[in-house]
Amino acid sequence: MNPTNITRRDFVYLMGLGTTGVVLSCSDGEPTPQPQPPAPTELWLYVGTYTSGGSEGIYLCRLDLATGALQKLAVTPNVAEPSYLALDPKGRYLYAVNELEEYEGKPSGAVSAFAINAQSRELTFINRQASQGGAPCYLEVDATGAYVLVANYLGGNVAVLPILPDGGLGAVVDLKQHQDPPTAHAHQIRLDAANQFALAPDLGLDKIMIYRFDAKQGKLTPSEPASFSTRAKAGPRHLDFHPNEKFAFGINELDSTIIAFSYDKERGALTEFQTVSSLPEGYTEKSFCADIHVSPDGKFLYGSNRGHDSIVVFAIDSAGKLTLVEHVTGGINWPRNFAIDPTGAYVLVANQKGNTVVTFRRDAQTGRLTPVGQALDIPAPTCLLVVPPSV
After folding, report:
1. pLDDT, tens digit, for every residue of 92-134?
2. What is the pLDDT of residues 332-359, one digit of tens each?
3. Of 263, 281, 283, 284, which Cα lies nearest the Cα of 272?
4. CA distance 375 to 365
């Protein structure tokens, strides 16, 4: 799960660079700058959860950009196990996995579609479709807003569902079963910036599957090469792309490592050039990585450790190499997912076992994190979706 689904286009808009900056001429022939949109003072946040862990559904919150404070506003109830969330590009619809092992009597989970009220940002249920695989754990909307791509963990496959004119979902139009189904555990399917390739880390196979994506037909075709193999028992879980599109970074759940890749956007191919531990030197207790994100400015990488209960911070140099900055531990308890807000000012962490969402202020120069405000109580939070100000 771009666990937060914030695109580079959104970030550029936010920084006031989304226009030419010149639209009129003065009488003396000098250009007149176009007024820029005011800087946002707050952002909306949706929180996905495990309802089996005591939550009520999908929570709507507000992030104060001046203080980092979080406020709970509303909840959408009666949504089974909405453990991962995604927005369409225009911010009109929200999609949630239903991380179930059985749906309508078959070994499958589901994906639910919701309309977003433009004023209140509250959700209205539209419809639900089978994901064609058990325990869907990640989903993403393609850049055209025409398809939802979903990774089914127990199904060991990835699926594509069409988005209908009303924002609802049609039945699966493509399904790619990873080899050795009892072993395969697809954990993510991540589109690149060009919307041409979809990369799917499979924790059980120790592979990142690489597909060419047809945005007109909603079809996935194995690329060449068709996969990247990690070390045995690494357990690839999630990956994120650098804003320059030259690098990608993958986090491995089982051996607590992070891989830095060169990314060939013409072929979707990954070339490993560095592997680092996500844990402090000498740490020997059990720990499992979960989520990974590159900061909007491309200067820092963040990853979450469950067990060590920390966010690890690395600096990224011009060649894409990583240098450890720090491990942040205060107030963190089983960080299933985290998000960097599109301004780059805050990192929000979902403490699945701690039943809270906590806010850290991010130093843009050093990448370091400092806790701010009070933790927000939400049962079993698993996904944080920050809505960019451009939608």
Report:
1. 999 999 999 999 999 999 999 999 999 999 999 999 999 999 9
2. 999 999 999 999 999 999 999 999 999 9
3. 263
4. 25
**Whether the Cβ atoms of residue 299 and residue 316 lie closer than 8 Å to each other:** yes
The H or E element containing residue 141 is strand 136-141
Distance between CA atoms of residues 311 and 384, nearest Å: 15
For residues 270 and 326, give the distance between their C-alpha atoms in angstroms, rounded to a whole number: 27
Instruction: Please choose, from the candidates 348, 352, 361, the residue with its C-alpha nearest in 3D space to the C-alpha of residue 44.
Output: 348
Q: What is the model's pTM? A: 0.91
State the average pLDDT over residues 135-152.
98
Cis peptide before 225 (omega within 30 of 0): yes
At 158, give phi and psi (nearest 5°).
Answer: -125, 145
Q: First and final CA of the chain: distance in angstroms?
A: 19
Quote the CA–CA distance of 376 and 33 in Å, as a whole number.
41
Three-class secondary structure of residue 321 per DSSP? coil
Q: Which residues pair with 363 in a beta bridge?
A: none
Look up residue 163 and give its amino acid. I
Q: What digits encode the pLDDT tens for the residues 376-385?
A: 999 999 999 9
Q: Over the stretch 358-367, which tens digit does the pLDDT of each residue have?
A: 999 999 999 9
Number of H helices, E strands in the chain: 1, 30
Contacts 24+ apart (CB under 8 A), 205-210: 205/178, 205/179, 205/180, 206/230, 206/231, 206/232, 206/233, 206/234, 206/235, 206/236, 207/178, 207/236, 208/236, 208/239, 208/250, 208/270, 209/158, 209/176, 209/178, 210/268, 210/269, 210/270
d(CA 44, CA 60): 7
Q: How far apart are CA 359 and CA 353, in angstroms?
A: 16
CB atoms within 10 A of CB 93: 24
Q: Is the pLDDT of residue 8 over 80?
A: no
Tokens of 214: 């047809």
Q: Give the β-pairing of 157-162 and 369-377.
A: unpaired
Measured between alpha carbons, how far is residue 174 from residues 160, 215, 366 in Å? Answer: 5, 12, 44
Query: Where is 269: in which H helix or E strand?
Result: strand 269-277
